[in-house]
């Protein structure tokens, strides 16, 4: 296996036209359509880096700030930002282009964690990343933080709140949008 690979060896751009069957009842494109395209481009990018099979393990930072319209051309620009032993964080920038006006808007950026596996579904080591610019070094560092933060988040979600009394919980959520009957 190649020990280290550059980021541009696996960089991928996927472009797709938003067609009417992708729309929801409000006439905008379903978020799930975009998620599926993001998963596809993350897979292609990670598979090119590790040279084999990989699976989607986690998704971070999916926020749809602007609606995507039917008729727009969506480009998903993906690159491997960080690699650990078996995991790869793929950063995806989604841009929407209106062919009529040529206007391009940035709709969202997200991070997909992909893990390389062998034919027995065991996790395997992936090539390291060659970092050749300040931006690539910064993105790798961000990826490392993202990996650590998502681990902390998972541990927090596993917390056992059953030891707290319901009266204590009520005090903490009293200003939230709920009512006790
Ligand atoms: C994710 C999975 C590989 C973890 O398996 P595991 O035996 O616990 O393996 P490890 O703890 O060694 O983790 C492997 C890597 O995944 C990372 N990882 C594990 N869980 C993670 C999570 N929830 N979020 C982000 N990264 C995660 C680890 O940090 C580790 O990275 P590293 O090797 O670069 O250090 C396993 O749970 C799995 O196969 N899940 C199903 C994935 C899948 O099928 N996806 C498609 C859904 S249809």
CATH superfamily: Hotdog Thioesterase
From N to C, what is the helix and strand string?
EEHEEEEEHH
CATH architecture annotation name: Roll
Number of helical elements? 3
- On the 0 to 100 scale, the average pLDDT is 94
CATH class: Alpha Beta
> Helicity, in percent?
25-40%
Which strand order does the major sheet show?
A: 2-4-5-6-3
Query: What Rg do the Cα atoms give?
Result: 20 Å
Biggest sheet, open or closed, and with what strands and sense? 5 strands, antiparallel
Query: What portion of the residues fall into strands of 2 or more residues?
Result: 25-35%
Q: What is CATH's topology name?
A: Thiol Ester Dehydrase, Chain A
Small molecules (ligands, ions, cofactors) in the structure: coenzyme A
User: pLDDT below 50 for ≥5 consecutive residues: which ranges?
Assistant: none
Q: What's the end-to-end separation, in Å?
A: 62 Å
Overview of the structural elements:
The protein has 181 residues and is of the alpha+beta class. It has one domain (4-173): Roll (Thiol Ester Dehydrase, Chain A), CATH 3.10.129.10. It contains three helices and seven strands, in the order ββαβββββαα. The protein has helices at residues 31-50, 134-157, 166-173, and strands spanning 4-6, 12-17, 54-60, 73-83, 87-97, 104-116, 128-130. The termini are far apart. Coenzyme A binds next to strand 3, strand 6 and helix 2. Coenzyme A (COA) binds at residues 55-58, 84-87, 113, 115, 123, 150, 154.
């Amino acid at each position: 296996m190649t020990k280290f690979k550059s980021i541009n060896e696996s960089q991928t751009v996927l472009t797709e036209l938003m067609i009417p069957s992708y729309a929801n009842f409000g006439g905008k494109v379903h978020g799930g359509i975009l998620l599926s395209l993001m998963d596809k481009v993350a897979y292609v990018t990670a598979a090119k880096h590790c040279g084999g099979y990989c699976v989607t393990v986690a998704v971070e930072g999916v926020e749809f700030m602007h609606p995507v319209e039917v008729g727009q051309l969506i480009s998903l620009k993906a690159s491997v930002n960080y690699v650990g032993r078996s995991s790869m964080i793929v950063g995806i920038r989604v841009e929407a282009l209106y062919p009529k006006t040529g206007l391009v808007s940035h709709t969202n950026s997200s991070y997909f964690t992909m893990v390389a596996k062998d034919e027995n579904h065991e996790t395997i080591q992936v090539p390291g990343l060659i970092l050749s610019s300040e931006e690539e070094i910064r993105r790798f560092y961000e990826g490392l933080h993202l990996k650590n933060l998502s681990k902390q988040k998972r541990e927090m979600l596993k917390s056992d709140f059953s030891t707290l009394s319901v009266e204590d919980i009520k005090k903490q959520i009293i200003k939230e949008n709920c009512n006790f009957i």
